[in-house]
Design a protein that fits this description.
With 332 residues, the chain is of the alpha/beta class. The protein is 18% helix and 27% strand. It binds flavin-adenine dinucleotide (FAD).
């Protein structure tokens, strides 16, 4: 075995799993495909729902420093997991190097451990796969979270989708005089709560939106949920469609929506963070679930049942010792 616990994904969920594992004496190896941990946090200018911090970069720096202090956690940047296999007695993770930061390794290198925490988060939805949108094939619309505030100040922008980055942009720039025309499908109505009262935002619930050919200004023909036909026009257009889970291939079980709930996994596979569910995509819940996933692996290693399930009896045998009992002085 290469370590006691493999962790795939170095966002808040994976990093929380690593330090929780260490607190109960488990060695872990965290595989992150990017060139730093917590890349997503570094793009969040204002945080109002995480205790102790007010912005993403500060939290990312604190997490990075916490991992650096953790003797039992090893972080490997520039390594992407491409396949996860789960067996009765172990898991195997196939990794590939992402140049230039990744370690020198042959193609198809495999890492082995008794358990794996998978916390690979979500990736942006492909607009061409979104049923209510037309006219987007071959169009390079930028994501809203990348919008330069100076470039949209005083302008009308068409926002395709009501995902959470809209709230982040609005909160981060209360003085911005942008008019956001937001077209969204009815199933995303619950996402509009946090920006509904912002006077800069016009919400248009649509069944169908067909984007016109021009990039700036943009125009779009929509059929609203009330059946009305309207033309929306704006100086610029942005994508804000949301995201989809992106686990490595292999043993990670997904439900019909593509998400990977912890309770559906092989007993040696623990999922955490945004990958679990469309409903709980927040930093605090990601960290909590990462800690729970590591504790789940710890209890399983000692033959104690977890929500994921008991290990197969034929190989369960006496529980493998992964360190001493939890040490209350270290928070275990
Ligand atoms: C613009 C924006 C604003 C947000 N604002 C807030 C907010 O105000 N408050 C809040 O609570 N939440 C906010 N969120 C959500 C928050 O960022 C996520 O809930 C949180 O980052 C999820 O953590 P995670 O560890 O599950 O996933 P992520 O942070 O996405 O981390 C997953 C990691 O896995 C890595 N990875 C992916 N695939 C592989 C692979 N195959 N092999 C190795 N590594 C891999 C990725 O590089 C990434 O580093 C915001 C998100 C965005 C995009």
């Amino acid at each position: 075995m290469d370590t006691d616990l493999l962790i795939v994904g170095g966002g808040p969920a994976g990093c929380a799993a690593a330090v929780m594992a260490a607190s109960v004496g488990m060695r872990s190896l965290l595989i992150e495909s990017g060139d730093a941990v917590c890349g997503a946090l570094r793009r969040i200018p204002v945080l109002s729902n995480v205790l102790g911090v007010t912005n993403g970069p500060d939290l990312a720096a604190a997490i990075e420093a916490g991992l650096a202090r953790c003797d039992l956690c090893r972080v490997e940047l520039g390594s992407r997991a491409t396949l996860i296999d789960a067996f009765d007695d172990r898991v195997e993770v196939t990794v590939e190097t992402v140049a230039p930061v990744g370690p020198a390794r042959g193609r198809g290198a495999r890492l082995t451990a008794p358990f794996v925490v998978v916390a690979t988060g979500v990736g942006p939805l492909d607009p061409e796969g979104v049923g209510w949108l037309g006219g987007v094939a071959g169009r390079a619309l930028p994501p809203l979270w990348e919008a330069d505030p100076a470039a949209i100040d005083g302008r009308t922008v068409l926002v395709l989708g009501a995902d959470r980055p809209l709230g982040t942009v609005a909160r981060a720039h209360p003085g911005l005089r942008t008019r956001f025309v937001v077209a969204y499908p009815p199933e995303d109505a619950y996402k509009t709560e946090e920006i509904r009262r912002d006077s800069r935002v016009e919400l248009v619930a649509v069944r169908r939106l067909e984007l016109g050919p021009s990039s700036a200004p943009v125009s779009a023909e929509v059929r609203t949920v009330e059946g009305e036909r309207r033309v929306l026009t704006a100086g610029l257009g942005f994508l804000n469609l949301g995201s989809a889970p992106a686990p490595p291939a292999g043993a990670v079980a997904a439900d019909r929506s593509g998400y990977c709930p912890p309770a559906s996994q092989h007993p040696r596979v623990f999922t955490a963070g945004d990958l679990r569910s469309v409903r709980f995509q927040r930093i605090a819940t990601a960290m909590g679930s990462g800690g729970e996933a590591a504790l789940g692996a710890y209890y399983a290693s000692r033959g104690l049942p977890t929500e994921t399930g008991e290990l197969p009896t034929e190989t369960g045998g006496p529980p493998r010792d992964v360190g001493g009992p939890p040490d209350p002085a270290r928070g275990g």
